[in-house]
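User: quick one - fold this with iron/sulfur cluster bound?
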Amino acid sequence: MAEPGVTSSNPIRDVCDYELLFDCVHCGLCAEACPTYVVTRCEMDSPRGRIYLMKSLAEGRIDLDDDAARHLDLCLGCRGCETACPSGVHYGRLIEGARSFVERNHRRGVLDRLKRHAVSAIFPYPNRLRALLAPLKLVDHVGLRPALRAIMPPIARDWLDLLPPLQANLRLLAKAPTATSRADAPAVVVHHGCVAQVLADSENVNSERLLAAAGYRIVQLESTSCCGALDLHSGNAARARDFARANVRALKKSGADAIVSGASGCSVAIAEYGDLLKDEPEFAEDARAASSKVRDLSSLLLDAPLKPKREFRCRITYHDACHLAHGLGVREAPRRLLASIPGVTIIEMPESDLCCGSAGSYNLTEPTMARDLACRKADNIVATGADYVVLANPGCEFQIAAELRHRRSKIEVVHLADFLAMASQ
Ligand code: SF4
Ligand code: SF4
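Assistant: Sure. Structure tokens for the protein plus iron/sulfur cluster:
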């Protein structure tokens, strides 16, 4: 119920889509699916608590103080609560609105602002990230990362630890079989992302090669912009819309019948362009068309399964990336693909769909909670005794690999496209 004098069309503050708040019946069935609640056991760090908080803010019953902003900041935007919710609450839309409200109305501490500014200024722009990483590539090449790490301030050290060794990606690059498709085959475009094209491009290349081997015709984008997910998750909807418009134009021009991304967060962002640009007559129709074409790699490959030339004997466990499982509802297709490889044994880990703490740039801005979740994920992975963790999102890959490196574990973390490429040699 709204407060007296506050109607569904007339909240006091523009916090989020106010009417959507009333879909929540406060049953609490989402709580155990929420990673932050599972860690803190604090009601205000649960989906229900945050919904209550958004409503209280909208109705002017509380002010946006440090404490309120903190509970909203701590949300990973993983959407585990959407999967668990029997009432169909669109939590993702609610938290995106609330984040924008926090950005507009709350002044954070200096360090927090600096971190967020750095993420926003660098990560969506591949050339800036490449330039920043160029000296580090040299450092890795001569094996001096531990020495560099030792002289860095703690916050820079935390960020450095999340960065994969900058040479390692080459090991997997371009291993999938190559093939030439028929001119009348369905056209697929792989969106190479922003961070992914710098740090995990083997996943893009191997996705294209696997799709071509499966009979699809690969088309390229004339230009690739960030999908806008980083901005949406940090409350900068205006720039997210700028990126979305650029992508909608390029995707339309590509003539693709299907759009794939190796990063599930990007897939979901594109799948929601129709909603993001719905009030822009010039883009609304093309945005809806782009959204309707989003597919995930494994579902497309299942239509034309790989035929590996040999056994690939190993034990793997599969981690469900949040946006793939909770955003696109894809869980079975990657498992079926992996199970079809001769020699592969899949061992399910507990809580496979509980967020690993990566969550876009969350592990950079909320390192404590992110690390707690990475530890929990690594415990579950190690308990399976697997040789490989396979997943379909580069952010999860970096986050989980960092924790396993820290434990000196021999378990390898591999993106689905790279794993399929290795297995189909
Ligand atoms: S999006 Fe994830 S972290 Fe946020 S409330 Fe929902 S389940 Fe919890
Ligand atoms: S978000 Fe859904 S599951 Fe959670 S309390 Fe509200 S209605 Fe219940």
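One thing worth noting: The domain at 18-105 is CATH 1.10.1060.10 (Fumarate Reductase Iron-sulfur Protein; Chain B, domain 2).
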